[in-house]
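Can't paste images in this forum, so I'm doing it all in text. The chain is below; anyone willing to post the predicted structure tokens underneath?
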Amino acid sequence: MRGEAGTAGMKPHRTHNKKGETMKGIAVLAVATALLAGCATQAQKADEAFDVYKATLPEPNADYGSYPDNYQELIKAYMTKTLKDPESARYAEFSTPRKEHAIANKRAIYGYSSCVLVNAKNSYGGYTGNQQFWFFYQNGQIVRTQNVTTGMNIIYRGRPINCQNG
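Text version of the structure:
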């Protein structure tokens, strides 16, 4: 017989059990969903703990360091390093430094902050228009800056930048 000669020594062809494979797929999906739900719960707990921590800030005995009397010079020196045409810079509306706190590596840092409007030439030679910058100082040095005009207006989630005089 032709069929027997062609199959000698060969194992019969197994058909896939589609129902079994579907059940395995559902089980894998259920486990993955449970793991992801656990991650979401952990992230939610971490967010809640962070919100509780933020509510305690600023700490009553916080050390804000020395007041930056020379804040205008510090700002101009910083902007000289970052602007395309620092000679063209026009500064306006410096706010006086105010006590401020920020968060770095999940802990509060204390210092002073102020804002200024800066108008300088771009690489095409035209003025960009006033842009507001926020500066955070610790012990006479700028440690953080943010372009408030083009960036987000927050120091950290739930704490907006305040450019009022200190």
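The beta strands are 85-92, 98-104, 107-121, 131-138, 141-147, 154-156, 159-160. Residues 71-160 form one domain.
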